[in-house]
Amino acid sequence: MDRFTGFPRDGVRFFRKLKEEMNREWFQAHKAEYQSLWVDPMQALLEELSAKLAKSYPDCELGRPKVLRIQRDTRFAKDKSPYKLHCAGMIPVQRSAKATETPAAMYVHLGLETILGAGLYAFDKTGLARYRKAVDAEATGKELVVLLKKLVGPGITVHGPAALKQVPRGFDSAHPRADLLKYKGLILGLPEPDPGVVESRAFLPWLVTHGKKVAPLVRWLAYNAL
Question: Is there a contact between 226 and 134 (Cβ–Cβ < 8 Å)?
Fold first, then answer.
């Protein structure tokens, strides 16, 4: 495994040019450049990060880190652009081999925009039902509230992508955790690091610190939404 040393300072130029070209011919001609600028350091970063976060998940297993495909799924999208303008990767958390989805101990998204976070972007049907049941229950629901109060603060946000406007059917509209019941996923967004951090090895300990901090929430998801 290569040692992570940072992402190239001028690496974002690749995505600026890809945005201009946005065609298979150009990407294939520059695929090796994308690999060296982004995929290789991302894989090295996630491998080291996973090893350093393992102790924060004593009752779960961290799956093999994954660098996600740059190709977009355009089957149901109005935007038919074939490529993403970022490189992203994640460290999956597994509690059961039967689970059909896994929360992320860390999600790293770098390119024309920076997105860093942890959690589960979208529950499947079974996971959503389990999540709502856990939020509704006094013990697990209050546990989640306490975890979020400890975590949310300057630069750290919590949100549920595509949240419902109303409490789902079968739950009281005045439920004490109504906002959480509306979520279809649960994500903790992390702050952007200071300029230059991503370009150095300092990005690794920065992510380790935040990854350890958010681990209790990700473990809650692994136990209550899988």
Answer: no
How far apart are alpha carbons 15 and 37 in whole angstroms? 11
Give the mean pLDDT of the chain. 94
Coil, strand, or helix at residue 113?
Answer: coil
Tens digit of pLDDT for each residue in 96-119?
Answer: 655 567 899 999 999 999 999 999
Name the domain count of the chain.
Answer: 1
Q: Is residue 54 domain-resident?
A: yes
Does residue 209 lie in a domain region? yes
Question: Cα–Cα distances in Å, from 3 out to 110, 115, 205, 212?
Answer: 19, 23, 13, 21
Alpha helices in 13-106 (DSSP H): 13-21, 24-29, 31-34, 40-53
Q: For 149, phi and psi rounded to 5 degrees?
A: -60, -35
Identity of the amino acid at 147: L
Domain with 189, as residue range(s), is 13-224
Cβ–Cβ < 8 Å for 145, 183:
no
The reply to whether 6 falls in a domain is no
pLDDT tens across 52-64, in order? Answer: 999 999 989 999 9
User: Which tokens is 95 given?
Assistant: 């509690």
Question: Would you say 90 and 108 are in contact if contact means Cβ atoms under 8 Å apart?
Answer: yes
The answer to whether residue 96 sits within a structural domain is yes
Q: What pLDDT digit, counting tens, does each position of 131-141 carry?
A: 999 999 999 99
